């Protein structure tokens, strides 16, 4: 490593070069793997920090039922449809006033406008993202794919609860859903 | 590899290249391969430059005149990809091929066969990439940053672009491995690490950046490929993925990449300035440590490209401070270059002019970088022409100026002929004035709110766009002078001595000009005086 190998022995030098190159190739492969490892790392980070606005899920019986009536939070609802999904989709109410700790129910309306049966999958997102750590759902149409017959329309329920440790400075939370065509990606 | 050494032993008798054109296809000689890389880079520089002329012509006045918006987007995307991966990176690898063995006293690169391969992959990669212009749907048009979901709507070109990125990635990784092995294993006796010329140091560190960053890019584009064609959902929200994650993976590569584009330039400048100041480089060791720390920090600043995606405050603060931290070792370098010139007996031959312009203009780019690093103001500047001005100051008046200065500096060594000093100076002054006319007004446009990557703009931006376009045309055309000067120097000219420049130090200047086809078959012994002057 320190100085050049003696030139008189060229095969030894060539072997040393190949060995160094081999080690560097291992680094290359490891970094390729690292690129992929960033994917789960990123998910874990989002899970911990609430970045990306993913909401939590709780079982209804795991709630202690205590309600913080001293605080009133405005929850706004949004609904968007991917351009590849021929559906109508929107919340039935635009917003609600809620107390942390209390379970609420609202609905979203969806209608399949196409002449064929289609399957959609909704993806939720909460803003501000820090609030997503405290936004839990006991039931949601986004948990599973939704299949709609041609022209079918229905109201789909969401049951949610804001936890009582929602940071004090937050007074408005927005829940938005985007419906994607789950049978066609990319 | 042993066979290539055998081939070398054969060459011993005639000491020259094989006659005929096939020499260039099969060559494993570092000087030949260096020449190939440099010519390839120059051709790509003109191809990319042609696209830039198209962009500036369209932006000369508001409205759509020459390029429809889709073609305009193809031009900006391909301009960036070609300049970054086709011009700047291969030019630096060309310098490394020519100079690293001669600077460390080695007979050739450590892995000559691999070297041939690394070069010859490039023409294939760029044929694939540029060929997409002729596909239905045209060339990639979603920006060189390839953000999904937009990039995935590109049609057939997506696969071509990704495949081209893979091939050029493999090429630069192999080139980097070769350079590291040469530097670590092939140094002549007495060439200790801390006697290596700074160009060798900066390339060693760049090569490590390459092997760490390029595989991550390869991973990112592979994920794009499987998202598009094989139904994975890495970046597809419908399938549970996240398009913002692409930006994280991309910039984890992308920021180290910008240092891959500038560290070898630092090396070239650190060779030129001491020569014409006739003083050893000020603070040699601090230069080495500054380069290494820039490289290290460059891996933890990536999200300064994505301040606006919605990060928590703590993340924004972290990336703001680490980004600003990079300015410290960069400042050390600028200080050292100036201190090298301080009280030197300076002369202003063409290479020195380019080097001084580099120091001044690159620093302007560093300052606009610092402005962009301030998170709250980046919300205003992001995706405006201010960013365009920033990265053109660091890339054109930084990387490209260093490359051109380096060519003027070593061309007499490579060819044995002196270039035309008068023409060289004209080339310098026309380029330097026009490049500022071209890019400085883009700061104003950006601050006034003109978005980047648009073919048409609001009328209040007209004046500065016209000025910028005029500067662009002059700058573009003046590079034809460079081509003329280089060709003229290769074909003849005043003979130069071994040393070429009175103040030059380093092993390459102890060889004949031009150096024989095989050099340092017997390792030289390196003294402190020759290493650092
Ligand atoms: C003091 C050093 C530097 C700092 C603080 C800095 C900071 C930044 C920041 C914050 C951005 C993002 C701006 C935005 O998109 O809103 C940026 C963009 C960029 N920088 Fe720098 N930079 C520095 C040096 C460099 C160097 C040396 C290079 C290359 C040689 C470079 C190349 C680029 C490029 C290409 C982009 C734009 C990428 C794109 O979005 O297409 N920067 N810089
Ligand atoms: Cu960066």
List descriptors.
A: 186 residues; alpha+beta; 5-stranded mixed β-sheet; 1 helix; 10 strands; flat; B: 533 residues; mainly alpha; globular; disordered N terminus; binds protoporphyrin IX containing FE; binds copper (II) ion
Task: Walk me through this protein's architecture.
The complex is a heterodimer of chains A (186) and B (533). Chain A is an alpha+beta fold and 186 residues long. Helix content of chain A is 22%, strand content 37%. In chain A, the strands form 2 sheets. In chain A, strands 1-7-9-5-3 form a 5-stranded mixed sheet, with no helix packed on it. Classes of the chains: A alpha+beta (186), B mainly alpha (533). The interface between A and B is large, with 44 and 61 residues. The structure holds protoporphyrin IX containing FE (HEM) and copper (II) ion. Residues 255, 258, 304-305 of chain B line the site of copper (II) ion. Protoporphyrin IX containing FE binds next to helix 11, helix 12, helix 13 and helix 14 of chain B.
Brief overview:
The complex is a heterodimer of chains A (186) and B (533). By secondary structure, chain A is α+β, with helices and mostly antiparallel strands.
Terminal Cα separation of chain B, in Å?
Answer: 36 Å
Record the strand order, biggest sheet of chain A. Answer: 1-7-9-5-3
Task: Give the CATH class of the largest domain in chain A.
Answer: Mainly Beta
Low-confidence stretches of chain B: 1-13
The SSE order of chain B reads HHHHHHHHHHHHHHHHH
């Amino acid at each position: 490593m320190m100085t050049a190998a003696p030139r008189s022995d060229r095969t030894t030098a060539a072997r040393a070069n190949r060995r160094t190159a081999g080690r560097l190739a291992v680094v290359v492969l490891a970094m390729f793997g690292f690129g992929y490892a960033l994917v789960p790392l990123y998910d874990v980070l989002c899970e911990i920090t609430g970045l990306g606005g993913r909401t939590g899920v709780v079982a209804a019986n795991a709630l202690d039922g205590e309600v913080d009536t001293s605080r009133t939070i405005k929850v706004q609802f949004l609904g968007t449809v991917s351009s590849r999904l021929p559906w109508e989709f929107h919340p039935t109410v635009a917003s609600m006033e809620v107390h942390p700790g209390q379970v609420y129910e609202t609905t979203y309306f969806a209608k399949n406008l196409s002449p064929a049966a289609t399957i959609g999958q909704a993806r939720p997102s909460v803003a501000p993202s820090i609030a997503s750590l405290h936004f839990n759902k006991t039931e949601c149409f986004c948990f599973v794919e939704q299949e709609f017959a041609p022209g079918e329309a229905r109201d789909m329920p969401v049951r949610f609860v804001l936890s009582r440790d929602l940071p004090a400075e937050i007074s408005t939370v927005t829940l938005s859903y985007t419906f994607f065509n789950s049978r066609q990606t990319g | 590899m042993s066979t290539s050494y055998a081939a070398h032993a054969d060459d011993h008798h005639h000491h020259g290249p094989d006659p005929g054109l096939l020499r260039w296809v099969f060559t494993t000689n570092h000087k030949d391969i260096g020449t190939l890389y440099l010519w390839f880079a120059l051709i790509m520089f003109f191809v990319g430059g042609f696209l830039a002329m198209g962009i500036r012509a369209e932006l000369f006045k508001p409205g759509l005149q020459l390029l429809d918006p889709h073609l305009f987007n193809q031009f900006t995307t391909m301009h960036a990809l070609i300049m970054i991966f086709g011009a700047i990176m291969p030019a630096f690898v060309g310098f490394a091929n020519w100079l690293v063995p001669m600077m460390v006293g080695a007979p050739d690169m450590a892995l000559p066969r691999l070297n041939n391969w690394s070069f010859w992959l490039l023409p294939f990669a760029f044929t694939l990439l540029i060929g997409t212009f002729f596909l239905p749907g045209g060339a990639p048009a979603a920006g060189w940053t390839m953000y999904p979901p937009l990039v995935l709507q590109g049609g057939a070109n997506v696969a071509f672009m990704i495949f081209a990125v893979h091939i050029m990635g493999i090429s630069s990784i192999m080139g980097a491995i070769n350079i590291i092995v040469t530097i670590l294993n092939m140094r002549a006796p007495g060439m200790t690490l801390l006697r290596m010329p700074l160009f060798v140091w900066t390339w060693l560190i760049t090569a490590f950046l390459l092997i760490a960053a390029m595989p991550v890019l390869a991973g990112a584009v592979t994920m794009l490929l499987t998202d598009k064609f094989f139904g994975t959902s890495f970046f597809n929200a419908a399938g549970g993925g996240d398009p913002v994650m692409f930006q994280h993976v991309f910039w984890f590569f992308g920021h180290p990449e910008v240092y891959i584009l500038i560290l070898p330039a630092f090396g070239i400048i650190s060779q030129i300035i001491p020569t014409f100041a006739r003083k050893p480089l000020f603070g040699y060791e601090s230069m080495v440590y500054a380069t290494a720390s820039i490289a290290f920090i460059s891996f933890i600043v990536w999200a300064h490209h994505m301040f606006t995606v919605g990060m928590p405050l703590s993340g924004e603060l972290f990336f703001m401070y680490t980004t600003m931290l990079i300015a410290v070792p960069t400042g050390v370098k600028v200080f050292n270059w100036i201190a090298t010139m301080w009280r030197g007996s300076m002369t202003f031959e063409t290479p020195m002019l380019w080097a001084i312009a580099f120091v001044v203009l690159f620093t302007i780019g560093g300052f606009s970088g610092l402005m962009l690093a301030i998170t709250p103001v980046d919300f205003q500047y992001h995706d405006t022409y201010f960013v365009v001005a920033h990265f053109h100051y660091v890339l054109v008046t930084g990387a490209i100026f260093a490359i051109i200065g380096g060519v003027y500096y070593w061309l007499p060594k490579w060819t044995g002929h002196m270039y035309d000093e008068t023409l060289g100076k004209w080339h310098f002054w026309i380029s330097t004035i026009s490049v500022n006319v071209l890019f400085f007004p883009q700061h104003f446009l950006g601050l006034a709110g003109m978005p980047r990557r648009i073919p048409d703009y609001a009328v209040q931006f007209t004046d500065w766009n016209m000025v910028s376009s005029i500067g662009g045309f002059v700058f573009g055309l003046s590079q034809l002078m460079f081509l003329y000067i280089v060709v003229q120097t290769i074909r003849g000219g005043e003979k130069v001595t071994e040393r070429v420049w009175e103040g030059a130090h380093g092993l390459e200047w102890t060889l004949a000009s031009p150096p024989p086809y095989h050099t340092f078959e017997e390792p030289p012994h390196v003294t402190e005086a020759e290493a650092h002057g």
